[in-house]
Design goal:
Helix content is 49%, strand content 13%. The protein contains 17 helices and eleven strands.
Amino acid sequence: METKLTRITELAKTNQDMVFTSLAHLLNEENLKQCHHELPSNKATGVTGVTKAEYGENLDENIKNLVRKLKQKAYRPVPVKRTYIDKPGTKMKRPLGIPDHEDKIVQRAIAKILNAIYENDFLDSSFGFRPDRNCHDALKILNVYIEGRYTNYVVDVDIKGFFDNVNHDWMMKFLQHRINDPSLLRIIARFLKGGYMEEGKYFDTNNGTPQGGIISPILANVYLHYVLDLWFEKVVRSQCKGQAYMVRYADDFVCCFQYKSDADAFYKALNERLQKFYLEIAEDKTKIIMFGRFAERDCKRKGQGKPPTFDFLGFTHYCSKNKNGKFRVKRKSSRMKVSAKLKKHKEWLKANRTMDIKDIMSRINRSLTGYYNYYCITDNLENVENFEYRVRLLLFKWLNRRSQRKSFSWDKFNKFLRKYPLRKPRLRVNIYHLKKEINYIL
């Protein structure tokens, strides 16, 4: 499969107008088995409750039946199991769909095909869920646009309920720009309209992508590629009097402008553009702010105090200066994200405080490592150290509630931490260290 996908990638790259007419044949036994093995184990199960291990007990027969259904056009995805996860910093819940294991196999195979075709089409402004591109890369290039370009205004945009409002008709039209294989398009359409189960009841899905499914990120990128990326690059930038840049990660994006008039015109046009494709801006989370090397001076002139800040990818961006007094963008962990993460630590410790102490410390350290890997970036180390301190306080509190008798004084607790130390934060990502790919973009 990898060889054939490489060939598809080469064809897509050399001819951007090429329409692929024969792709469904890649959903064969060998490739679907490979996708089965690549899927992670011990994940939540869908409506049928079949795990990867259970499906693999009779893998050959199961895959044969799956291929037969695909060829006979009889394959229909099982409705996803709807569950809800916490939305960081709010009391709201985010809906998440858990597909059946067999559907995950098909989704993974289709996602590989779509990535092979569209990865060459996606613009450099897009960073979400793409190979060799991550959140830190998006932050690095945004940093260059603000510090190294003529950025004076930032438009921080949030699309309201994007994954729930993707229009199926437009999605299929966008896919048909590059794909004209009725069999593959039929399967994708069935995933979009597969519905979901909640509390034993079935619900249709007339809009939206199957969030939580493997195919969802690539479909979201395809949709926003045509709705937003190409429009900004071809239309918005050509109409701007000054410089204009965009950095997008999935449905979260930030636009930088040299002139206020360009930012205002973009905001107005964006509303109209999104409405055409059945999307809308979250007004309470979208704003135009003065931001850049002259923001502090301009805010003082208007008697507004410090320049405003904006949040992007879990970090609050604010105007500051380096040791030499020159303008610099700095980032700190978003207060909302920190509070949500501390709340999770508190709830976990409260529920599991009677576990073996080694298991508790191992679990906390694994969580801290993941947190450090993301948040330990340039200028944010002090905030992460404060986070580690607050986790330590939570640990002291809940280890002292393992029984009716208090377990630790502070002296005893510090001795305990010498035996079972909490991992300490250190710088993991230098925002000013650009990869070759980003240097090429710039």
